[in-house]
Design goal:
- The protein has 7 helices and 22 strands.
- The protein is mainly beta.
- It has a single domain, classed as Capsule assembly protein Wzi (Porin), CATH 2.40.160.
- The strands form 2 sheets. It has an 18-stranded antiparallel β-barrel. It has a two-stranded antiparallel ribbon with strand order 16-17.
- α2 packs across α4.
- It starts with a helix and ends in a 9-residue tail after the last strand.
Length: about 550
Amino acid sequence: MKNQITLILSLLFLSNVIHGQSVQYQPNSLAVEHLRILDIQDSSYHNFHAGLRNYFRKDVQAFVSSSSNLSSTAYKEQYLVRDNVKYFKDSTQVENRQGFLSKYIYKQSENLFELDSEHFDLYINPILNISFGKEKQRNLLRFHNMRGLELHGTIDDKVYFYSNILEAQGNFHNYVEQRIIKFSAIPGFSFFKPFTSRLNQNIVGRDFSNAQGYLGIPISKHINLEFGHGRHFIGHGYNSLLLQDYSNNYFYLKLNTRVWKFHYQNLFAELSPISTRLNPEDVLLPKKYMAIHYLSFKPTQNFEIGLFESIVFSRLNNFEFHYLNPVILYRTVEYYLDSPDNVMLGLNVNWNPWNKFSLYGQVVIDDLRTTELFSDSGWFGNKFGGQLGVLYPDVGGIKNLNARVEVNAVRPFTYTHRDTVPSFPGISIANYSNYNQPLAHPLGANFQEVIFTLDYQPIESVLIKLKYIRAEQGRSRLTFFAGDDILRPDTQRESDFGATFLQGRPTKMNLLQLDVSYTFFHNYFIDFKYVNRREDNGDLFNTDYWGLGIRANIVEHRIDY
């Protein structure tokens, strides 16, 4: 069966390579933040759907080139031009300057090495993230030593590819370490093992790694096919209740269809219900699968609405082929199969009134019984959540001062499911997770939070970020499952009724974080960081951290809750 599937997909992949152009993605960098702001201030490029966070490099070029209000010397636009110089080579916006040691490397300032021929181009960059600091409470050294390499390019200006590999040693803030122990997984990474420094036996942490890669091709003028190993984000917010890039990378097949004012994305993925730390040695990780439809529509230049549906399911080592249908509603298929699978529906909305600020929001529905919705019964199956936020660029007319306020709330048992992993009865299979990590919001369920961020770029080389997050969550007690941990089967609840929002052990979290970054070369940064976090669930759990670091061609994977 696997050979047949491989043959079918290979034929699909290799056929019809006659239309379209390479559209490889803009990596998760400052460009993503800049594009979000520019989309608010100038919505003249109608084909840009900001809710699908993996932005195409070709869209970046079209966005900047078509804009009628953007200055060619502004920080954000110049950054985008330098970061996508392949697509701006014939543009007057490209700065005529020599890179460091430009005869051999950095021929253009954004790439260590590049090869550009008529039918093939290749770009290679190092990845580096080294930081050191101390936590006040325990006088502990916190460190990260991450190294890696990324490469991307195109073949015949049609086939595009990207790959990176990361290898790291380090330890984490005390509240993250607590989470790693609980879930046997480092957020955003895969396998890890203990680490002790050879130079100082008191410096301990974890040795971990990760890799990402994808290969894509246009199969028609408006349809793009991609195989990869990575993660995705759907939404306009700081966090997402639909799909967030918090978990470990996963294998996927993706179709992007862009016609008129629509952008339609199909995502099919293979996931794992547990991490390797829970799996016996030399035994293949158990599998589960996910299929997502997301239809984005922009009826006007400054309004975007997206309809989302997903299904997570387990089968004995095979995909459910009914879910490969790219257009049918999954709930309909579920009824047809009489399946026990986990279906979710969602709505994503963004409006940029007067090109001054963005109003955005999300609704996610995991399960709903309308007859119980407005009753006082507290039926556990009313599983849903919502988001509401505003992003305001150039606050008070101050250039490059951007503020965000966002509210998220999710009812207990949302994202959970009833089935279990045979060897681990305490873990569900078809919950909305991968590798013991949520696929949506990091807190899981049964929480509410308020996020405030303030970003300021006073000069091109300095970026200041201030962030405050206040969250409340009802957490499970030893004898009571509150619906917060989405990995647990919802059958562990005490009753079908009586569930209340924030039920369980009250836990309050307050996080204040200050980041100051100095850019001394394109995508090379010196970072200063301060983190102050307070968690109160009857016992105080505090974090105070000061640190310095150097970073190249990577953004930090956010672990902030």
